[in-house]
Amino acid sequence: MLSRILTFILSPFAGPIRYGTLKLMKAMRQPDDRRPIIATSDHILNELVLPSIFQTFKKGEFRNLANFKKLPAVEHDRIFNELEVAGVYLAIFCLRLMKPLVRSEDYHFWQDVEFHLPKQLQKILINYGVDGASAKLLKELTEMRGDEYEELAEKVLEVNDGEKEEFKNLPSELKDMAAFIQATAVVTTDHIRRGKINQGDSLIKYLVKWLVFLQARIAKFVRNL
After folding, report:
1. Where are the chain's structural domains?
2. What sign does the dihedral 104-225-94-208 (CA atoms) show?
3. Cβ atoms < 10 Å from Cβ of 131
4. Over the chain, what is the mean pLDDT?
5. In the chain, which ranges are continuous DSSP H helix?
6. Computed over its alpha carbons, how large is the radius of gyration of the chain?
7. How many alpha carbons fall within 13 Å on the CB side of residue 108?
8. Which of 93, 98, 139, 143 is least surrounded, with the fewest CB atoms within 10 Å of its CB?
């Protein structure tokens, strides 16, 4: 099943066709028409988030840092789930922070996209052949991990504001995103390692770089659509 998902998501032709259609749908949307919201959520997940998750999961550097060779296949699946919920919730948080930065007439559109993302993830997984119960569990795990990321992010933000001079003059949105990415990388590493996390863990640094890159792509998409 994983190979079928990869073949579809990583197709070089799917993205440009979808993007052009999506831009037209958003421009011509009507107040009560939810199709542009659903299509935008689907694009964010299928064209940006999920390909990035799959590519990261397959990279040798990530697998070495996560000690794949010492772990059974069932642990590989669990690690993939942790990457998946981290990437999906990053998109949710990114949309939340960007809403005040978009055109006023688009504010509620992006708010609706943010709220719809978890539900769209569930639909996508079912379309890929994941059974309904498992898809629902992953949606619930995404929401549960989101609470963990945000709780730690608040503490990271306090530390950054109090101890790191370079953070004090940044816009609040950048401060919040930096703290969230740091927190997400730490929580994800902690779950991947089943609580056996080390100070200065190289996996945290790797995940921070991945999340920063993914956030930049999502932000660019939102600004340009």
Report:
1. 2-224
2. negative
3. 10
4. 87
5. 2-9, 14-27, 35-43, 50-58, 60-65, 73-98, 107-127, 132-163, 172-192, 202-224
6. 18
7. 7
8. 143
State which amino acid sits at residue 11.
Answer: S
Name the residue type at position 198.
Answer: N
Q: Is the pTM for the entire model greater than 0.85?
A: yes
Compute the distance between CA of residue 207 and CA of residue 189 in angstroms, rounded to an integer: 8
Question: Residue 54 has which token pair?
Answer: 């799959």
Kindly report, residue by residue over 164-197, the tens digit of the pLDDT. 667 777 888 888 999 999 999 999 999 999 998 8
The answer to whether the CB of 150 falls within 8 A of the CB of 180 is: yes
Residue with tokens 């107040």: 31
Question: Is residue 7 scored above 80 in pLDDT?
Answer: no
Rounded CA separation 42/180 (Å): 23
CA separation for the pair 58, 200 (Å, rounded): 23
Give me the residue label for tokens 């390692």: 193
Q: 83 is written with which tokens?
A: 């990457």
Taking a C-beta distance cutoff of 8 angstroms, is the pair 151, 187 a contact?
Answer: no
Query: What's the token pair of residue 66?
Result: 């996560």
